[in-house]
Each structure stands twice: as structure tokens, then as C-alpha cells.
Amino acid sequence: MTYPTEHLIGLVALAHATTDPDKLCRLLQEGHRLYHQGLDETRAAVTAEHQDVPDHALVQQCRTRQLFLATDATRREALGALAFARWEHTPTALAYTSIAEHAAAHGISLLPEEGS
Q1: Roughly what angle, to the nearest 10 degrees, separates helices 91-105 and 3-16?
Q2: Could you give the angle at which helices 75-87 and 55-64 cross, rounded to 10 degrees?
């Protein structure tokens, strides 16, 4: 496992062991940072793997995998869609989702409430 995965799995245990709003918020913020670190690493790997793939072939890969992509999508958007499709089912992404769901069940979110 990579560092973000190990660390996030540890954060899951801590998050599920508390209902303290301040602690949940801190754990969610740390998890969010690690989630994006892992996503950035996945995006870099997908970009490197597809460096020799023509743009039209990237778009076709997205369509074959039934990934939403605008008709005028850029290479960067296609690579982003492929990276996210790979990333979203990794242990790291799933661990973050678990933390976010637990925090949300206790009224904690990183998004400000409407009207605030």
C-alpha cells in the first residue's frame, strides 16, 4: 500500500471511533488532502501511460468505458476522466468516502451550508 492508503485507513478507524465534531472535521480535512494527493498521483500515472496515445483514441477509450465526456473535450479532460475512473474504486478513495459518510452522518462537511 502507498502512504496515502495506509494513512487514510488509519483515519477511517479514528473517524469511526468518534462523534466529536472538531475531531471529525480535522480527520475529514486530512483525509481530503490525502484523497487529492492520491488522485494527483493517479492522474500523473495515467498521463504518462497515455503519452503516445492520440487524442481521438483517448476520447474513444472514455466512450468505450462509458465515461461522460463532452463532445469538444480536451486531451486533459479525457485523461482526467480516465484517471478518475481508475481512482474511484481504489482503497484510498473508498477509505475517504467512508470518512466523509461518517462525518456527514454527524453533520460534518467540508462544504459550507447554504445561506451561511
Answers
A1: 20
A2: 40
